[in-house]
């Protein structure tokens, strides 16, 4: 038994600070979605929408307390599935900010999607300038709208169109080969080089005004202080779900977003050399499923622009096990909250209290 718990004990000993950051984020989030105020507001929304199935089904039971209990549990489960990913995103940003402060790397800039949409990149806010207000901006989500030069947007449309037509060519040329994603071909410098050459074309397509407004998705942007080497010093990460990206339409959309994001960062000259800017989609969570075999072509990404869960958490500098440990800790509080809160809404509980 001790051997089973040893890896987790080592994780808690070495990365206790990261576990606590995740735990606090999930704890505060669960407190909100389990609160009476949140649940009552959601139930009012449910009534106003008057779903033709659910509303009549629950209303015809003529047992409002039971209906409220059912909807409350449903709302908590539904909201948890959506917001838990946001809570983890915020925790990742906090981890990187914490590490920068610990190592005195205060020139580092760390931005979440919420911080980007609130203008933090325009202000070039570094870790040294972040106060307690950063937590507020970590959670205030809104669309991130930017101006990108029209010449780059046109170049992106052409490049993505070229990749879209690769589907028939590749299937006819190699129908006998077993299926492997381009981003899984770590030993294929040809595929990676072709991907990088497309980024270079986008950088060269920036010719100046006019520009058009677009919405960008970037869950994490990290910019390091300028150094003279040729290594990447800026990383823009878009979190994706492997199940969702198995669809061709979703992959195409994410590819367009990633190229537009790269064009914008080069356009804004966040670093002098475009080659020091690395953009990628990344798996935030380890997911095990058989969805990878759907809609095989085109892939759109290589190992240069697609990060596995392991690669992403190596970049963060902590193992994913910190999330598991934090969730286990929060689960105990969540159990007690459900027992004392929602179960009290049931009709028999109300009669017992009366």
What does this structure look like?
- By secondary structure, the chain is an alpha/beta fold.
- It folds into two domains: 2-84 and 324-353, no CATH class; 143-319, no CATH class.
- The protein contains 15 helices and seven strands.
- It has helices spanning 2-33, 36-49, 54-59, 64-102, 113-117, 120-123, 133-139, 150-164, 166-173, 189-204, 242-245, 248-267, 309-316, 321-340, 347-353, and strands at residues 109-112, 144-149, 211-216, 220-223, 234-240, 277-283, 306-307.
- A five-stranded mixed β-sheet has the order 1-4-5-6-7, sandwiched between helices. A two-stranded antiparallel ribbon has the order 2-3.
- α1 (2-33) crosses α4, α8 runs antiparallel to α10 (189-204) and α8 packs antiparallel against α12 (248-267).
- The radius of gyration is 24 Å and the shape is globular.
- The two termini are 47 Å apart.
Number of domains: 2
Give the end-to-end Cα distance, rounded to a whole number of Å. 47 Å
- Provide the gyration radius in Å: 24 Å
Tell the overall outline: globular
Poorly predicted runs: none
Question: Tell me about the biggest sheet?
Answer: 5 strands, mixed
Strand order of the largest sheet: 1-4-5-6-7
Total helices: the number is 15
Strand content: 5-15%
Q: Structural class of the secondary elements?
A: alpha/beta
Percent in helix: 55-70%
Q: What is the element string, with H for helices and E for strands?
A: HHHHEHHHEHHHEEEHHEEHHH
Instruction: Calculate the mean pLDDT score and round it.
Output: 85
β-strand number: 7
